[in-house]
């Protein structure tokens, strides 16, 4: 099973700031990594798939990069609605599809 | 609009079984693979299982392997999860989710339901 490790666990930032979240895989997942956003009390939402492809309706301020074992999700300028938990997920080696433990983005 | 609505959650005794349902609308259900994903209280996401768009293939996560069945009724646009031998570790919000790919499964979930809560407790 591929283990995904996200860092940091929590980030405290202000609206307008740029943020980069990290996801590291225990072995190569090629480019088959996705990012999801989850707000309190809501279901996750697919943001990025295959490392760098934005899902339908996702704002351009969200971008993903990386390949192999190291990936990043960047939000170019934080909006108030971006404060949430972000999960990465791999789909190259399954079952099972696995998720990272999440990074919580807090308002400073 | 595209919508998934789960039902069937509640409080269950250890050792018992449950059946969750997921009603789909707003898209051609029979064209998409479907997943179940769960989230224990305050924890991350755990993939439970997937069923192909036509029901021909099903795969499960390690923690439910051998005691779960994912099924679907394409004529009624409904997905199901049967889970047996419940334990406290099955306590979670259970989400159904649509696979991103039409006529295939690629393992990304692009539409999610709101979730149904399962509590396993005596």
* Global structural class of chain A: mainly beta
In total, the number of strands of chain B is 11
Main beta-sheet strand count, sense and barrel state of chain B? 7 strands, mixed
Largest interface: A-B, 25 and 23 residues
Strand content of chain B: over 45%
- Global geometry of chain B: globular
- In angstroms, what separates the terminal alpha carbons of chain A? 36 Å
| Beta-strand residue fraction of chain A | over 45%
Q: Give average pLDDT of chain A, whole number.
A: 97
Report how far apart the termini of chain B are. 39 Å
Q: Please give the count of helices of chain B.
A: 0
Approximate helicity band of chain B: under 10%
SSE blueprint and pairings:
The complex is a heterodimer of chains A (108) and B (122).
Chain A: E1 4-7, E2 10-13, E3 19-25, E4 33-38, E5 45-49, E6 53-54, E7 62-67, E8 70-75, E9 85-90, E10 98-99, E11 103-107
Chain B: E1 3-7, E2 10-12, E3 18-25, E4 32-39, E5 45-51, E6 58-60, E7 68-73, E8 78-83, E9 92-102, E10 109-112, E11 116-120
Parallel strand pairs in B: 2-11
Antiparallel strand pairs in B: 1-3, 3-8, 4-5, 4-9, 5-6, 7-8, 9-10, 9-11
Could you describe the 3D structure shown?
The complex is a heterodimer of chains A (108) and B (122). With 108 residues, chain A is an all-beta fold. Chain A has strands spanning 4-7, 10-13, 19-25, 33-38, 45-49, 53-54, 62-67, 70-75, 85-90, 98-99, 103-107. In chain A, strands 2, 4, 5, 6, 9, 10 and 11 form a seven-stranded mixed β-sheet that branches. A four-stranded antiparallel β-sheet of chain A has the order 1-3-8-7, with no helix packed on it. In chain A, a hairpin with a 2-residue loop joins strand 7 (62-67) and strand 8. The mean pLDDT of chain A is 97. With 122 residues, chain B is mainly β. Chain B contains no helices and eleven strands. The model of chain B has no long low-confidence stretch (mean pLDDT 97). The interface between A and B is medium-sized, with 25 and 23 residues.
């Amino acid at each position: 099973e591929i283990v995904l490790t996200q860092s940091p666990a929590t980030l405290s930032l202000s609206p307008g700031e740029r943020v980069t979240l990290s996801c590291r895989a225990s072995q190569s997942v090629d480019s088959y990594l996705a990012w999801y956003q989850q707000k309190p009390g809501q279901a996750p939402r697919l943001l990025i798939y295959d490392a760098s492809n934005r899902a339908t309706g996702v704002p351009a301020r969200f971008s993903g990069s990386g390949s192999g074992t190291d990936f990043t999700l960047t939000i170019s300028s934080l909006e108030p609605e971006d404060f949430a938990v972000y999960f990465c997920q791999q789909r190259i080696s399954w079952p099972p599809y696995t998720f990272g433990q999440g990074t919580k983005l807090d308002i400073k | 609009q595209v919508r998934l609505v789960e039902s069937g959650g509640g409080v269950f005794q250890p050792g018992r079984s449950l059946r969750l349902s997921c009603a789909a609308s707003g898209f051609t259900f029979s064209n998409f693979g479907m997943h179940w994903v769960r989230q224990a209280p305050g924890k991350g996401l755990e993939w439970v299982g997937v069923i192909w768009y036509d029901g021909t293939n099903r795969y499960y996560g390690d923690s439910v392997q051998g005691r779960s069945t994912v099924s679907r009724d394409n004529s009624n646009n409904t997905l199901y999860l049967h889970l047996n031998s419940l334990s406290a570790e099955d306590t979670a919000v259970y989400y159904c989710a649509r696979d991103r790919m039409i006529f295939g499964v690629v393992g990304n979930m692009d539409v999610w339901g709101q979730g149904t809560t399962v509590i396993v407790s005596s």
